[in-house]
From TrEMBL:
Residues 2-65, 83-139, 155-214 form the Abnormal cell migration protein 18-like fibronectin type I domain. Signal peptide: none annotated. This is Abnormal cell migration protein 18-like fibronectin type I domain-containing protein. InterPro entries: Mig-18-like, Mig18_Fn1. Pfam families: Fn1_2. It comes from Caenorhabditis brenneri.
Length: 223
């Protein structure tokens, strides 16, 4: 005989305990008895063999082996973190997350401090003028400056790192992080002028000035 919660059970008898487990009374030849868990019971009353699982409603129930327990995780249509439905997106800190089936939360994009959205695995130029990328580094998401990123001219053209172009009276070169730097000046029909250098053409003097990273181009009458 097996005793459980004030009741007696004969050898081979089964019963449901705590609403979640089917127990069985086992009596040995020496007349000693023990109770064994033979299966788990879902909230809907469906029996699950030990070591298997069953999807019921918006949850997946698993009857674990060893120290038998009934575990539940979100099902295919289960909510993420108990709040968000499948396909729903939300912003958390500097990241946009999306709820996928079975309660999986995935990262969709990052946000710069200025509010620029950068999809995972891509880079975008931020209002400060440089580029940032949203990437996975050693299993963790990172929002960092993007070293290898094309530059954009004032007319919207794309330039690769190292390429130069004329923009107004200035010569620019595409550097890392999608940032272009002024490397000189330019005058139609005259040519390029180095920084802090002058050039005379006819009766005109052209000056290309860089003072504390403040760039100026001036045209004066030559004397």
């Amino acid at each position: 005989m097996c005793a459980h919660e004030g009741k007696q059970y004969t050898n081979g008898t089964t019963f449901i305990s705590q609403g979640s487990f089917r127990m069985k009374c086992v009596t040995f030849k020496n007349l000693t008895s023990t109770l064994e868990v033979v299966s788990c019971i879902t909230p809907a009353g469906i029996e699950i063999p030990i070591g298997s699982q069953l999807e019921e409603g918006d949850k997946v129930y698993e009857c674990t082996s060893g120290n038998v327990t009934l575990k539940s995780t979100p099902g295919q249509n289960g909510k993420c973190r108990g709040t968000y439905s499948v396909g729903q997106e939300w912003i958390e800190d500097s990241f946009k997350l999306i709820c996928e089936p079975y309660g999986k939360v995935s990262l969709k994009s990052c946000f710069s401090k200025e509010g620029t959205e950068i999809p995972l695995g891509e880079a975008r130029r931020v209002p400060a003028g440089y580029a940032m990328e949203c990437v996975m580094v050693n299993g963790n998401v990172a929002l960092q400056t993007a070293k290898n990123f094309d530059c954009e001219t004032g007319t919207g053209e794309t330039k690769k790192i190292g390429e130069t172009w004329n923009e107004g009276n200035f010569v620019r070169r595409c550097a890392h992080y999608g940032v272009s730097s002024i490397i000189g000046c330019y005058v139609d029909g005259v040519g390029s002028i180095g920084l802090n250098q002058n050039m005379t053409s006819g009766d005109l003097l052209y000056m290309c000035i860089n003072q504390n990273d403040q760039f100026k181009f001036r045209t004066l009458r030559a004397q």
